[in-house]
Amino acid sequence: xxWKVSALIVNSDKxxxxxxxxxxxGFNQLKExxxxxxxxxxxxxxxxxxxGTHKGNLIICAQDFPTTFxxxxxxxxxxxxxxxxxxIEICSILLHSVVNFWGYSISKNNEKIRVRGGSAESGTFxxxxxxxxxxxxxxxxxxxxxxxxxxxxxxxxxEVYTDDQVGENFVFEITKRYFNESLDVNDELLxxxxxxxxxxxxxxxxxxxxxxxxxxxxxxxxxxxxIIILQLLRKLxxxx
Length: 240
Known about the structure:
Elements: E1 4-10, H1 18-24, E2 28-37, H2 38-41, E3 48-54, E4 57-62, H3 76-84, E5 89-96, E6 101-108, E7 111-119, E8 123-128, H4 136-139, E9 142-145, E10 148-153, E11 156-162, H5 163-179, H6 187-190, E12 193-200, H7 204-239
Antiparallel strand pairs: 1-4, 1-5, 2-12, 3-4, 3-12, 5-6, 6-7, 7-8, 9-10, 10-11
């Protein structure tokens, strides 16, 4: 089975007004649509978002928005969700098996705990934070070779696998952190119904672009300050 997943897991059973929460996250012009099982909408259409609960966790399935969490910096969308759920772990999981794209992010109180992600084309493009418990078994089966992590398994000792070929397994293991069972065998989770909404003109993409511009400007500002300090020091030394 090929897996396509774009979802958020909030480790909280706090009751929320779904429409109000989604609006705060940047999903605009919301209209309620048919509820569907997680299995059907774990990777929903671009203009649809689904929200529901399973075993004490809030689940949000949407395109694009969970991808913005795959960053070592906490962006505004993640901050908005954290403000709703202080002292709570927030996890983003992403899979697209066609291109071996995989990723996961875990944060709490606007602090990143762990972020990893990659694809067949790009390799592992982000890795931040210390490994969490659910990663340790798989990581123990890997070795480093010229900066590349390679995996070998007892049931297939002659084959060597790269990070992108094992990324899906890591995402499944991360889901055990919240559901006590891996996503790929968790029938109860797959059958869980989530409330659906259509939306238009989302602002979370705009927020991400603005945040990146702000980070870029701060970087340039830091460079300018360093240049000014160096010029002042040069003048000071030469004047003496």
